[in-house]
Amino acid sequence: MHSRGQVVVGVDGSPESLIAAAWAADEAELGRTGQVQFVMVSGDRLADDEAWETVGPIANRFTPQLPGLEVTARVAHGDPADVLVQLSDDAQLIAVGSRGRSALAATLLGSVSAKVATHSRCPVVVVRKHRRNGPVVVGLDNSPHSQAALRYAFDAAARYECELVAVQVWEHAEPAPIVPPLEHELVDLRDEALRGLAEQLSGCTEAYPNVPVRKVAQRGHPVAELAAAAEEARLLVVGHRGRGGFAGLLLGSVAMGALHHAQCPVAIVRDAKE
Q1: Which spans of this chain does the record mark as coiled coil (predicted)?
Q2: Residue 32 CB neighbour total at 10 angstroms
Q3: Which of 101, 114, 148, 222 has its CA 20 to 30 A from that of 258?
C-alpha cells in the first residue's frame, strides 16, 4: 500500500460520484491521509467554467468535515480514466463512483470505473453505496496477489474498528462430476480451504491483534459467494488478479465480477510486484 499521501476522487456531478466523494471524505477523516483532491476531468477546455462549477462546490462541501487537512479542487483535461490512472502514480488511493453521467443502467459498471480499476498503480475503491457500518470482507485464494488485498483489508478493519471476514471460495475439482462427490470429500475440501485461510491470515492476525477475524470457507462460484458475503459489508477487498490471472495490467475475472455485482464499496488492490 502507498504510504500516507493523497486521496484522489474522480467526480463529474453525477449522484454516484457524490457518493464516492462522501466515502473518500470519511476515509480522510479517519486519518487515512493528509490530502484530498477532488478532480473533474473535462474533454473541452471551453467548458472549464462549467467544470469548476461542478468540482468547486463539491470540495467546499467536504472541507468543513476535514479540518486540518488539505482539500483541493482541480479541473484536468483529457480522457477521465487516463487522467485518473496518471494521477495514481503519486496517489495513495483513487476513489470513483460505480458509474458516471453517461451510464446506460444502474446495474452497469461505468467504463471509467472499470478502466481505472484495471490500470491504476495504487488501490482503487469503486463506491456503489456508502456504508458506515458492517464488516470488511476480503477474498483470498492462496495466491501471492491476495496478500496485498489481505494487508489492505486488515488496515481498513483496524481503522473502522470492525470485524474482518476472510472468505475463501472453493469448487470441486470436476466442474460437473458424473458421480456427485461424497460428503466426506466435501468436508475434506472445506477443511483444506480453512487450513489455507489460517496460513494466509497468520502473519496479519499477529500484526493486528485487536481486529476480530471470522474465517469462511464456502463452496461455489467466487464472484457470487463474495457478493453474498459482502451484502451487509462496509467494504469488500479483492486482489487485482488471482491465481488465474496473467501478467500485465489485466484485471482478474473475480475482481471485475465483484465490481459488477457487489453492492458495497469494492477496493481493488494491486500487488506491488505487478
Answers
A1: none
A2: 18
A3: 101
